[in-house]
Amino acid sequence: MTELLDGLWQASLWLAVGVVVLAVLRPLLVRLGGVALAYRSWWLLQLLLLALMLPLPQVALLEHVPTLPLKVVPGAVEGMAGQSLPWAGLLLLAWMMGAVLCLLRDLRAQRRFERGMGQLCARADGSWQASADPGLPALVGLWRPRIVVGPDFDQQFTAQEQGLILQHERSHRRNGDHWANGALLMARAVFWFHPLLPWASRRFLRDQELACDARTIAPQPALRGLYASTLLKAQLVHPVAPAVCHWRSQPVLKERIAMLKQSKRKALPWVSGQVLVVGLCLGMGAVAWASQGGAAADGQAGAAMDREIEVEKMPPPSYPKSAFEQRQVGVVNLRVEVDAKGHPTDVQVLSATNPGVFDAVSIAAARSWTYRPAIKNGKPVAGAVKIPITYAMDNTEDSQ
């Protein structure tokens, strides 16, 4: 449970770093490689999240197993003392509820948009014509995306304008922009609490439309004027759906027309921009991946000295109520394996003087403790630690 929350926290921090970096570099990227390069740079966020999910290299367990003794007295008796609130569980529940609500909201908006199109009829040009217009033309659908136009498409646009619009939507489909929108929908659900994600979502969708405009008009630069007038003719006044590639996008209308006036990029700056984006993705991805071990080592990954496993937070287990009432004492010897990130991966009972009496509370406590991983040759490694837990009725009494 705590590992999932730690992963969400780490992913949120790296998402924030990635969004800030892209926001700062965007003017430079547009100058070097145009809006297509700016749109491509959003791959950085996906690569950062992927890097955080990649496992660190497996290192053999340290042969030496240190021992950390612990003594428990009936200060907190199981079932009698007030238990602290399970904050980790509450936070996880709040995150899950927020993610589900956000996902349902977007899916409902998508469904409402698709119902608003009414009945669809196939057209000779490969597109589909809707009986109503909730915000068309658009590329609709994820698994089987279809280009859908409004009922007055033939009356509103000339044949040449229709061709440009259909080319635009086909470019969205060839480039897989509908899949990108689906991934964005999931990211908005998972990171619904992230303060920078709303801005990043809007900027991503704007760059998507600008890049699609550039791809559409690049082979036919003589039609820039017609393309701009077609954009002006179709201003979107309907709310957009979360997983739809809209031809009409009112918030970026001026930006799209301004992009059409830009001249073709020179080769050298274009290559420099591509190298910059690739280097940025690889470099930050590598740092994010390596940070998993670095965070666990608490900044000592570069140190030359070795260190055994340490326990940062070690609240004692609750004394079992039945054992307290019968004045039972005993010793439970645990072996706890800890990975290179400081997470307990396995807890075993090696021996117990009263088998079955203190085992369960001992294992539960060991899984909740916070560990610092062992350091070998300056790097965090997996290891194990023996923890004998002595249960006594007072601080002076030895277990029998």
UniProtKB/TrEMBL annotation:
The record's annotation in PROSITE patterns points to:
TONB_CTD
- The superkingdom of the source organism is Bacteria
Q: Which residues form a coiled coil?
A: none
- What keywords tag this UniProt record? Membrane, Transmembrane, Transmembrane helix
A single Gene Ontology CC annotation of this entry is:
membrane
TonB C-terminal domain ranges (all copies): 304-400
State the membrane topology.
Answer: Single-pass membrane protein
Concerning Pfam families, the annotation shows: Peptidase_M56, TonB_C
According to the record, the segments passing through the membrane are 12-30, 42-65, 85-104, 267-290
Q: Can you say where in the cell this protein is located?
A: Membrane
Q: What is this protein's name? A: TonB family protein
- Per the UniProt record, the source organism is Stenotrophomonas maltophilia (Pseudomonas maltophilia)
